[in-house]
Amino acid sequence: MSEEAALTPVKALKPVFSQEMIAVRVRELAAEIDALYGQEPLVAVCVLKGGFIFFSDLVRALHNENMELDFVRLSSYGKKATSSKHVIFSKDVEIDIAGKHVLIVEDIVDSGHSMQFLMSQFAARRPRSLRLAALVDKGERREVDVKVDFAGFKLTEGFIVGYGLDYAERYRMLPGVFEVTL
Ligand code: HPA
Ligand code: MG
């Protein structure tokens, strides 16, 4: 037996957003983002680990030559029911964001606790602007006031994996997004 907690086996993966649907949506978001920032200094910040595939596709679809890329990783602590309410950086950005436009790129926004933490930390550093892009916005699960400025898809229910999203670190590599049935 490994030291990891036993995992409820996955019974089925049901396709939700295909690789083709995602590619189309990423190009649409990139066009909106390009139209907004043009060539103004922009720091695109990937939220690890889940954001890494969306981020890599999105930034390659942008045309801003004054864009810098950086990465954060967040950890949340506490009891299961309140798990995402105490959030810390396990890795912060290395670039100074003061005076620059900042675009956070996340896989999914659910309760909003970790994004509320990240946005308040970043806001204190006085960026020129601060916006959030997420592949998936589970808006109905929001517990705090966090707005997704660029949402790939909206979803009301289901636990999804693929395109960066995991179930206990599995399935991040799938090219499309699937709903997990346990
Ligand atoms: N999938 C993966 N991670 C998540 C989800 C989901 O549906 N919701 C919040 N974190
Ligand atoms: Mg996850």
From TrEMBL:
Positions of the Phosphoribosyltransferase domain: 21-167
EC number(s) on file: 2.4.2.8
Listed PANTHER family: HYPOXANTHINE PHOSPHORIBOSYLTRANSFERASE (PTHR43340:SF1), HYPOXANTHINE-GUANINE PHOSPHORIBOSYLTRANSFERASE (PTHR43340)
Compartments reported by the entry: Cytoplasm
Pfam family, one: Pribosyltran
Origin superkingdom: Bacteria
Gene Ontology terms, MF aspect: guanine phosphoribosyltransferase activity; hypoxanthine phosphoribosyltransferase activity; magnesium ion binding; nucleotide binding
Main location: cytoplasm
Family: Belongs to the purine/pyrimidine phosphoribosyltransferase family.
Keywords carried by this UniProt record: Cytoplasm, Glycosyltransferase, Magnesium, Metal-binding, Nucleotide-binding, Purine salvage, Transferase
Pathway connected to this protein: Purine metabolism; IMP biosynthesis via salvage pathway; IMP from hypoxanthine: step 1/1
Name the record gives this protein: Hypoxanthine phosphoribosyltransferase
Catalytic activity annotation: GMP + diphosphate = guanine + 5-phospho-alpha-D-ribose 1-diphosphate; IMP + diphosphate = hypoxanthine + 5-phospho-alpha-D-ribose 1-diphosphate
Cofactor requirement: Mg(2+)
Gene Ontology cellular-component annotations: cytosol
GO biological-process terms attached to the record: GMP salvage; guanine salvage; hypoxanthine metabolic process; IMP salvage; purine ribonucleoside salvage
